[in-house]
Design brief:
Layout (H helix, E strand, L loop, with lengths): L13 H7 L3 E7 L9 E4 L16 H9 L5 E7 L12 H17 L1
Parallel strand pairs: 1-3
Antiparallel strand pairs: 2-3
Length: 110
């Protein structure tokens, strides 16, 4: 298991992901799916072209499509509903709690 912290530019790590050739890639990011702040949902990568699912320079869907040309793997997107959207905005307590929960749960599962 390898964890890559893509932060604001996950597309910068596509070379490393291709080199690792994983069976699964789990992306965890803020995604506006119209729920209460901090709610978590498993999102369909086919919906990743929705602009509300990207806070990055490169849309998530473009990155997934690019990686699929090089590696045969399953992509999972875990979205956390943000309270506010925008670069540099502070993380609210509900969203921080959801991120901690996800990190702990993923670590235990993997």
């Amino acid at each position: 298991m390898t964890i890559i912290l893509g932060e604001t530019a996950p597309e910068n790590f596509t070379g490393e992901i291709k080199r690792l050739a994983p069976s699964h890639v789990v992306l965890v990011d803020a995604a506006d799916f119209g729920r209460a702040p901090g709610e978590i949902d498993l999102l369909d990568p086919a919906d990743a072209d929705n602009p509300s699912m990207s806070t990055h320079a490169l849309p998530v869907r473009v990155m997934i499509d690019y990686l699929r040309r090089f590696i045969d793997c399953r992509f999972l997107i875990l979205g956390v509903q943000p309270a506010v959207r925008g670069f540099g905005k502070p993380v609210t307590p509900a969203v921080a709690a959801a991120a901690e929960y996800l990190a702990r749960d993923l670590f235990e599962a993997l």
